[in-house]
Structures are given as C-alpha cells and as structure tokens.
Amino acid sequence: MSIINDILTFNESFVNEKRYEPYITSKYPDKRFVILTCMDTRLVELLPKAMNLRNGDVKMIKSAGAILNHPFGGIMRSLLVAIYELQADEVFVVGHYDCGMSAVDPNKMLQNMVDRGIKQETLDVLNYSGVDLNQWLHGFDDVQSNVRNSVEMIKNHPLVLDSIPVHGLVIDPKTGHLDVVVDGSK
C-alpha cells in the first residue's frame, strides 16, 4: 500500500496554511559548505541539530554510507555544483557508526532482488556485460576508512581546488557526538 495519498492530503493543508514560510531561504548555503552524508533515517534531524544547522545553512547530499565510489559519478557532480555554482567553500563528509552499509552482503541483496521480482536472467546479463554487481553493491568494513577514502577522492579530484577544505567526520547516531577523522583545514 502506498502512502502517497496521506502525503498529498497533508501537503495540501501544509501549503494552504502557509506552514512553509519559516523554511523560506535562497538556494545558496548561508554557511557556505556542502555535506556528503548517509541516507540513514536516524540522521535526518539529528545531524543538522548536532552540527547547529538550520534550513538554508548548507547543501546536503545523501548516499548509502556516504560513499563516494566514482570520481565522475552523480555524487561528485553534485559536490562540484555546490562548490562552483552554489558558493560552497568547504566540504564535509559525514559517516556514522552502526551504518547499514558496513553490513551489506551483496549476495543477500541480489537474492532479495530476485525474491521481489528481478529476474535472474537480468542479473546474468548485467554480470555478462561486465558489471560486477558484488563489487558495486559492497559497502565497507570500517566507517572511518570509508570516510577517509571519500575525503581523499574529493581532495584529489582534478576539478577540486587545493584551497577547498575537505573534512571527514563520523557521527554517533544515538548521541550526535562527532569524531573528526580528517581535519581539512590542516
């Protein structure tokens, strides 16, 4: 069962009652930085509160595990847009402890796909085509190493200036405590 009707009913009253007004801001981040973080549900409100952020302060990019796995993929493009078009002067990569991507078993996920209706032939064609689904779906073993890898990929990208600080942090999804993995200002 879809929840779209509930969402649209709520949205109609949200707009009609002008409850959006406290969130009006520009497209440019007031604090002039961009965050790459995980899509984990525990971070939706906790991360901004733990970093003293409000609506309009930053650009936020989310991916499973805060993983940046390709230097010319959509996540990196979004970071570059934030820097060169939307006035972000710093980058933060924020992973978190107890991340689901540290426990992803690609074989189990592929089986879940088949169980939900993806045909085995589709997976076979992708594998035959040279797509290593096990590698592509694999998460990481250590969150701090993952954050460090993402920071390094951003810092070493040919389109990111050396003057752009790239920081790496890990947040505790229970308390909001931040551990610094890479201080990009040093």
The level of helicity is: 25-40%
Q: Helix count, per DSSP?
A: 7
Order of H and E elements? HEHEHEHHHHEE
CATH class of the domain at 28-104 and 139-182: Alpha Beta
Mean residue pLDDT: 95
Q: Give the tally of β-strands.
A: 5
Q: What's the architecture of the domain at 28-104 and 139-182, going by CATH?
A: 3-Layer(aba) Sandwich
Q: Largest sheet at a glance?
A: 5 strands, mixed
Widest sheet: strand ordering: 2-1-3-4-5
Percent in strands? 15-25%
What radius of gyration results from the CA coordinates? Answer: 19 Å
What is the CATH topology descriptor of the domain at 28-104 and 139-182? Beta-carbonic Anhydrase, Chain A
N-to-C terminal Cα separation, in Å?
A: 51 Å
Describe the global form. globular
Name of the CATH superfamily of the domain at 28-104 and 139-182? Carbonic anhydrase
Structural class: alpha/beta
Unreliable spans:
none
Give short descriptive properties of this protein.
single chain, 5 strands, 186 residues, alpha/beta, Beta-carbonic Anhydrase, Chain A, 7 helices, 16% strand, globular
